[in-house]
Amino acid sequence: MPCPRSLSLSLTKTHTHTLLSLRRNVAKLMYIHMLGYPTHFGQMETLKLIASSGFPEKRIGYLGLSLLLDERQEVLMLVTNSLKNDLNSGNHYIVGLALGALGTIASAEMARDLAPEVERLLQSGNPYVRKKAALCARRILRKVPDMLESFIDLAAAMLLDRNQSVLLTGVTLMQDVCHTSTAAVAVLRDQVPQLCRILRALQAGGVSSEYTVGGVNNPFLQVQILRLLRTLGHGSAEASDAMSDALAAVAANTDGSQNAGNAVLYEAVQTIMAIESIGGLRVLAVNILGRFLSHRDNNMRYVALNTLTKVVAVDTQAVQRHRATIVSCVKDADNSIRKRALELILALVNEGNIKTLTKELLDYLNLCDAEFKPDLTAKVCQLVARFAPDKRWHVDSLAAVLVQAGAYATEDACRALILLVIATPDLHGYAARKFYAALTNSIDTAEPALITVAAWCVGEYADILTSTNPKLLQAEEPLSVSEADILSLFEQILVRPATPIVCREVTLTAIAKAAARLPHCAPQSKEMLDKYARSPQVEVQTRAVEFSRLFKFDAIRPQVMEHIPPVEDSGTYDASLGEEDGSSGGAAGVGMNGSANAAADLAALLGLDVGATTSTPVADSATTSGGGADALHDLLGNGGGLMELDDEPAIWAAPVEQSSVTTIRAYEKQDLAIDFSLSKAPDDALTTIIHATYTNTGPIPLKNFTFQAAVPKYMTIKLEPASGATLPAGGAGSVTQVMHVKNTMHGQKKLVMRLRLVFTREDQQMLEQGEVSNFPAAF
Hints:
54% of the residues lie in helices and 11% in strands. Strand 5 and strand 6 (661-669) form a beta hairpin. The longest helix is centred in the N-terminal third of the chain and has 31 residues, at 4-34.
């Protein structure tokens, strides 16, 4: 029979061997878990290791607990007692393991149960335990915010600790306390002087070398103190004043030659700009960012630009001092830095420096990479539109943009320029001369934007351009232009192989306008129009035929082609927003909505308004006495020649009655269908409310869809905005729009409507026209 002593030793060896195997198996289990395999079957083995008495077993057990379990696991409740026992252990390493595990996986219930133990350990005599307890307290605050009062005083007391690690965790705990409750911020503001003393001590030196990074004393602690001061000083002038000297010392004495020093300086700048600081301190902060802009590291420059973009709203003048450096960043090779610099310039520009900055940006526009030109062109247009000191300079600057980067100028920017010219009578002749000269000097290389604007201005103001006694603006050089020169310029545009279709369309419109302004060139203008009456491009052919036909109606041609009046009550384009703002209104030929002027409305019906978003009715004021009125009626009458240009007839369907709402198929051609749901206005028997539904059953979506409509002179029409501009493929969705049509001859004449549909299919602009004549007699 074996002796008891040998049996005890045998059992001890067996137990030790078992624990060793268990540690190895749990370690393997954690590796399997990291590979993504299920390991729930080993959770209880982990708890056995935690419950053991040895440090090696507890270390593996707590590591497994952190990896294999989370707060949602019910089995976690079994470990609460083990954690409490280990938090009271005499071995500070075991206490550290328990605090680390609690800070990683503690649930709200566990945090409430063990919070008193953590509070006690925050006052431990061992700095290692105090540090671990502060980190664990942060987790408890996040899980149980209502325990805030238990940690406020303890966190503040940690600022008196001499251990740098404990100080760091104490400051981070104070940050969490401030973020948990705004009321705690007011309480902790009393600690600002102590925080400033710590900051000054770090600047003075005397810190252990183990906390020094790149010659900067404990930059991690400095960064956290600066972040805490930012929170405490925000909204409090008294606290901000108390920390001003310390912040100035950090900004002035920190070495910025290393990344550690730059990190401290960056946080100091952020703090200075966030608190209620005085102007001199803000200037110091901006100067630090100015030094960052000259740094060779791209990350530093990007951070500086990003911060200055926020600072400019607080102190614009301080940022203006670094304008030259910011402009130089626009020429940087890094695309992200260029974009940030442009955004900052956009915020810096005002009426006083717009001319200087625009000139610098235009000079760079010639040199920058093609991939950057769209952004730069858009930003220049935005700046000019927002801060132009006068309209003449506005026109000059956009003309320079169109000459240098016309390929990147947007349609909205061109439209805004034309509207500016229309609204400024004193610039009519100047704009015509300016763009005539610009296009003549670069006709072989001109981009579509320049051609469009120049052709429109020359055609619209041809009479002013050819005047023998023009009214020149101050310092403007005279320009002699004849009728033959204008027609020659138009001819060069039309015969130029690279001229886009849209430019040909605008040029044909300009020829028709010039013929109305300059009667002597009418025969040559008609000959030029007749050349394109058989053009393979449908829109070009349509315009050529329609304008050529107008020459048969000399009684109304001058009225149809009269000068476009200034736009009233219309949406103006703000280049800074990149969109239209306001209600409809406008003029033909510039892509605007319809106006009250009859000639403009007629021009819109004839297709002279490139890119218009809606149309308005043919107004009564368009009529003239005698043959003029008859000619206009002949031109717009049912069955007129305008519809003869369709290369494929539209298919019309009979109306379908649906109780009080009648639905008709207004248009159907290839994949595009338009349905009208008709109903009478409840308070007006003469008005019909039309709910239009646009559907695309084809395999390709139709983008930039625009619906235009015109009615005879005895009717009026009002279009509300459409619900969208894209018709999904396969009938997956539709676009709707509401129209109000008033028939003043209801009961005598039926409703009739002409349609013009513009859309883009596979990057190709398409135009379709049609006529709706199947309205029921009741409407």
